[in-house]
Design brief:
With 447 residues, the chain is an alpha+beta fold. It folds into 2 domains: 1-125, no CATH class; 132-446, no CATH class. Helix content is 36%, strand content 15%. Helix 1 (2-13) packs across helix 2, helix 1 runs antiparallel to helix 3 and helix 9 crosses helix 10 (340-351). It is globular, with a radius of gyration of 22 Å. This is Thiazole/oxazole-forming peptide maturase SagD family component. Residues 103-447 form the YcaO domain. InterPro entries: YcaO-like_dom.
């Protein structure tokens, strides 16, 4: 039934005749709920936006399941989920279990596009057989390009300092500043099956992003890298945040947004500003039970601090849903049926509290936004990264079988979410704050 609805919706978007039966009427209602049907007062999408919507709907048609869920503490927001088979897209070596994606937003359309965008990122990021992005290994190990710290290269590959870098398949990337081509080991750029991997560490997905256009995707990818760097410097490096208690710093419109998304919730909610030396605002939105237990967090970076806070808040709402789903599973599933991610959520629910981790609410003495967050539209992410002296690269991951603009952005030197890959930035921040990374990089984190 769902497949039929999606296929009829896709056909209507492609301009095929409306049969006028009940199925077509359902498809029209679905497209209208997404805001994809033209109305007398609606803005006509530009060609790139229209093509992106068609590609998202085509991808939805290839999913095994697509569903909505109510968010328990954010009844005014929307959540979409999807399950899909990588094998259906020519991907092998990752088992037969379906992959999943989720998206949230203040409207059904935002949640739908967020969910399918995440699915596109997952599918585009994985190496294919005979992948056109792969440059087969040469007789020489990868060279250390100026602007790419060797410790970053080794850390990302899981190669110890005394080990040879060896021979690696490569992927061509380009500088975001000059457009000059550079090659990097494939294991840093694409996720490949474990049996083919050279090195101990699988590629992380930080900086993989999709968008209506390639430039949109590049911007989103860089913002994600900036966000992840900031949250690890805070959690593991001891960087002190600023607490924004109720969002009043962003005015009445922001408070109205919170109320509309979350008209009734028993959980407390607050914000932390995590902005670093990179001049782009970064925020965490957190919530807990009244007693300070079961803390959940969402994170976002954006040139506009209000937009960053909204995005962090919506992610937090989605994480509340994820925690509840996983926490309920032991009541109806045997232990051996729980996934690794379920176990992570269950452990977070037990351990993450204000009593156990005071830094979840620890604040600087003045509860105000930083100068960069107060200043309206901040520096763009490319310029902001350049200002601290780091190189930035990108590669187009758009796959013909997915047909949604997707890129990988890389900034050698920024800290990744995986804190076992310790960057110089994290080491220096931890040293300044008298943090012992050997004891702080434990298994429980709010991300």
């Amino acid at each position: 039934m769902l497949k039929d609805l999606l296929q009829r919706s896709a056909a209507l978007m492609e301009g095929q005749p409306d049969s006028g039966d009940a199925g077509s009427e359902d498809a029209r209602r679905f497209l209208d709920a997404l805001g994809y049907l033209p109305g007398p007062d609606s803005r006509k999408p530009d060609p790139e936006e229209d093509a992106n919507r068609r590609a998202l709907m085509a991808l939805a048609c290839r999913c095994d399941d697509l569903f909505t869920l109510d968010m328990p503490h954010a009844s005014g927001a929307s959540f979409f989920g999807a399950k899909f088979s990588p094998a259906a897209f020519g991907i092998s070596g990752f088992g037969s279990a379906p992959a999943s994606a989720g998206g949230r937003g203040v409207s059904l359309r935002e949640a739908f596009e967020s969910c399918l965008g995440e699915a596109a990122e997952y599918l585009s990021f994985i190496e294919r057989k005979d992948d056109p992005l792969t440059i087969l290994s040469s007789a020489q190990p990868p060279s250390v390009t100026p602007g790419i710290p060797e410790d970053w290269l080794r850390g990302g590959l899981g190669v110890e300092p005394e080990e040879s870098l060896g021979l690696y398949d490569l992927v061509g990337v380009r500088s975001l500043y000059t457009g000059e081509p550079v090659t990097l080991p494939l294991e840093l750029v694409l996720r490949r099956p474990a049996h083919k991997r050279n090195g101990e560490r699988a590629a992380h997905s930080n900086g993989v992003a999709s968008g209506v256009t390639t430039s949109d995707a590049v911007r989103s990818g860089l913002l994600e890298l900036i966000e992840r760097d900031a949250m690890v410097l805070w959690w593991y490096g001891g960087q002190t945040p600023r607490t924004i208690t109720n969002g009043a710093a962003w005015g009445e419109e922001f408070l109205s947004f919170i109320t509309c998304c979350r008209p009734a919730s028993s959980r407390n909610c607050w914000f932390l500003e995590l902005t670093t030396d990179i001049q782009v605002p970064v925020f965490a939105a957190l919530s807990s039970r009244v007693d300070g237990s079961q803390v959940v967090a969402g994170f976002a970076a954006d040139q506009d601090s209000r937009r960053a806070a909204k995005r962090a808040f919506l992610e937090m709402c989605q994480m509340e849903l994820a925690q509840q789903i996983s926490a309920d599973k032991p009541s109806y599933l045997p232990d051996d049926r729980l996934s690794d991610q379920d176990r992570i959520w269950i452990e977070r629910e037990k351990q993450l509290s204000l009593d156990n981790f005071p830094r979840l609410k620890r604040a600087a003495s003045v509860e105000t936004l930083s100068a960069v967050a107060r200043g309206g539209e901040a520096t763009g992410p490319v310029e902001a990264v350049a200002q601290i002296g780091l190189e930035a690269f990108w590669v187009d991951l758009t796959r013909p079988e997915v047909d949604i603009a997707t890129v990988r952005t890389l900034v050698p030197g920024l800290q990744a979410t995986d804190a076992s890959w310790v960057s110089t930035r994290l080491s220096e921040v931890a040293r300044t704050n008298c943090i012992d990374l050997d004891t702080e990089t434990g298994p429980v984190a709010p991300f």
